[in-house]
Request: fold
Amino acid sequence: MRRFLSLTSVCTIVVLAGIASAQQINVAVGGSTLFSTKSNSASLAYPPPPERGGSYASVNAQIIFSNRFGFSAEVAARSKRDLYNSYQEYRPVLYDLNGVFAPRLPWRNGRMTADFMGGVGGQTSIFYNQFAVCGSSNAGNCPIFVNSNHFLLHLSGDVRYYFFRHFFVRPEAHYYYIVNNSEFHTGNVLRLGASVGYTFGPR
Reply:
């Protein structure tokens, strides 16, 4: 417990120091959808489904320093539950931590900035146990959901366009390589969408 608290304290100090020295802090919320390939094999009765479609809500924060480098964190979760192979309800959640390079673009009178990101993260697929019947004798030992967790690698790019002062709109593309993504047809997943956000500090 002491080690955990010490690690948490160190991480908090590092984050606060980064915020204090940051030239720019960006926060944004967005919407997107997933794309991936579909299995062409008919040999399996219940092949792993493709991880694609659906509406994903996301929250993102960036810290950019004066040299235009920084770091970011993001979480994207499916807005509604989906049916896994038309049977079990589930909801994927994607999260990542990245290094960022954010060069200014020479168009639109300095209103445009690009973001190139790469990092690591994870995917948690929440499978809901809606078919379980639990009596009073085993109520404390009856989970309502089961999580499947996988490590992932993340690459992304976007363009921020400042349409009013420090408010921006940001079309974006995210590529995930999800390691051992056995619940789905492939570990290669593309997420396309857009965000709206605000910049604290100079653009």
Summary: The longest strand covers residues 145-164. The helical segments are 2-21. The two ends are 41 Å apart (CA to CA). The chain is about 10% helix and 55% strand.
